[in-house]
Amino acid sequence: MSLQVADFLVEIGTEELPPKALKNLVQALADGLQAGLVQSALRFGELKTYAAPRRLAVWVKDCQLLQADKLVERKGPAKKAGFDAQGNPTKALQGFARSCGVEVADLIEVETDKGTWMAFEQAVQGQNAKDLLPDLVEAALAKLPIPKPMRWGSSDVAFVRPVHWVLMLLGSEVVPATILGKPASNVTRGHRFHAPAELTINQAAEYADVLKAQGFVVADFAERRELIRLQVLALAAQEQAVAVIDEDLLDEVTALNEWPQAVMGSFDEDFLSVPSECLISAMKGHQKFFHLVDQDGKLLAKFITVSNIASTNPASVVSGNERVIRPRLSDAKFFWNQDRKGSLDDFLPQLKTVVFQQKLGTVFDKIERLETLAVKIAKPLGVRQELAERAARLSKCDLMSLMVGEFPELQGVMGRYYALAQNEHLLVADALDQQYKPRFAGDELPNNELAQSLAIADKLDTITGIYGIGEVPTGDKDPFALRRAALGLIRIMIEKELDLDLHWLIEASLKLHDKVVFSEALADSIYDFIIGRLKAYYADQGVSAEAFEAVRVCRPAHPIDFSKRIEAVKVFASLTEAESLSSANKRIQNILRKVEGALPSEVNTALFEGEAEANLWQALDDLREEVSEQVAARNYTLALTRLAQIREPVDAFFEQVMVMADDLVVRQNRLALLNQIRQLFMAVADISRLSA
């Protein structure tokens, strides 16, 4: 008998949804619905999502119409507790049978690893999908990531935005239900202005086509996104310009429009005297415009906006947008001119009134810590002390500027512009901008030692301070973005090959915080937190979790040293000797772990009882000096490659020698030999972690 299936479609029609949340909302709806179908044992095919400003929809292809019948087993008391010595059913067993609505004779015996149990097996008829789907939809809607649900009218129903209609079709039939206070139907609605009338959907497969052809709605988010991209690129090409398409902005614009129509506008070229970042922030942040540049990357006095209406008078749409953007650009120009009437130093006193964190003081307090810490970091990097101090001194001043007050995302960027305007050293100016790098995953790193010093100091001060007062990130809660800061500073150290002692820097930073009680345990916890960010970092580079742990347990103080060890372990793991030696190291570790007291370390060759011991000792002795030299020079790959040569004598030793000999002196001597092998490998990494 073939499985009966039909397509299922659910659409929630609402007021305009929050654009930045749209993609997550529809994906969460699809994920929740899929999980419900799986839990309900309803088979299904592909899930297709639709998301537009006024709708969330999911099309489930080939949804099973009827659950399969199944046997449900209820376990009762153990057989020995179900019958007395005479074989009569006990009250416990009789009560279990009554609860199942049957006689004791109808119960069955079930064998388990804990003995025989009495049970009742009942055939349960499968339910219709039509009866199950309303609850599955409601459960999926209840789990949507909505931080502050809205209520409207006199209803107790709450959702991200007021709901106007609900469409639910299974095949060609409406699924009878009331969802979010609205009775389900086969009716949807098109564009608010172009096609406000109701539209009937007869089956899921025609949903998108009907909305596009009759409703002036491109319901598919990805299709609408690409349509906008192509329209923007085409308009730019007409002007021999390049449209700069920010992917996040493209997502937001896609979420704001159902029937996108790209149009081009312009603004007065006098505004181009303002730094381009300011104009771009005004266009992107306030108006959701795409900006244009010439072939050399220079900002043009043009923009592209996307309208949600196919206007019969496009010129009026253009002029309207030009009229709206002008005061925004005028504000930016005013802020630029006003901020430059003073110097960055003039903003310093104001930072004494801005709280960085209640227990850690003001932003000015942070600056004073940075002046000390940045110099400590800069010195081994060969940076002049006065430049490090000056960069730290000015690092947060632009926070009090009018421009950054209006466009917070320009912090650092404006610091650089204002520093150049007052003739600060170019390296100092660059450091004010680059201190915040990397701002996001994949972002570029500070490109000179002064900027790197300030960036590390800034991130480390935040981590040690917040961590030091007990505000440790938990789960998804990380209000000070410590995880991002930790990964950023350690990326700078590794990728820019800065030979800095992370342990020492953590201690130095902690001791600069007046409200933090320093302890070695606290410093170690912060080290573990920072180094822990490298697990995902290396995983992205194809490094196994086992290789990462092999190095982590050695707790290298210098992140660049950590990186070199990782590379060595990767190479070692590819050698034919790796599996055998990692297993041997694991065996050695297990043996030594059981030794009570201090581990023996001195080997007496006179106590050797066979060639296997002598050969292993000789192989070890031949390698010891060279390996130690390579480790000291951080040539870890060569060190492990050389150590791989002791595979055969190690294998022979374990095949022919009983380590835990009855003679205590002999046993201690063999343990000392194993301890020396272990220590030589541990000078690079704990390769026992590579063993399964």
Task: Present the secondary structure layout.
Elements: E1 5-14, H1 22-39, E2 47-52, E3 55-64, E4 70-78, H2 79-82, H3 91-100, E5 108-112, E6 115-124, H4 129-142, E7 150-151, E8 158-159, E9 163-170, E10 173-174, E11 178-179, E12 182-185, E13 187-189, E14 198-200, H5 207-215, H6 221-238, E15 242-243, H7 247-256, E16 261-266, H8 276-287, E17 290-293, E18 299-307, H9 314-339, E19 355-357, E20 361-362, H10 363-378, H11 385-394, H12 402-406, H13 413-421, H14 426-434, H15 449-468, H16 482-495, H17 502-510, H18 520-532, H19 534-539, H20 545-552, H21 559-573, H22 578-593, H23 611-632, H24 636-643, H25 647-656, H26 664-682
Parallel strand pairs: 9-12
Antiparallel strand pairs: 1-3, 1-9, 2-3, 4-6, 5-6, 7-8, 9-10, 11-12, 13-14, 15-17, 16-18, 17-18, 19-20
Helix pairs in contact: 1-4, 6-7, 8-9, 10-11, 10-15, 11-14, 11-15, 13-14, 14-15, 15-16, 15-17, 16-21, 17-18, 20-21, 21-24, 22-26, 23-24, 23-25, 23-26
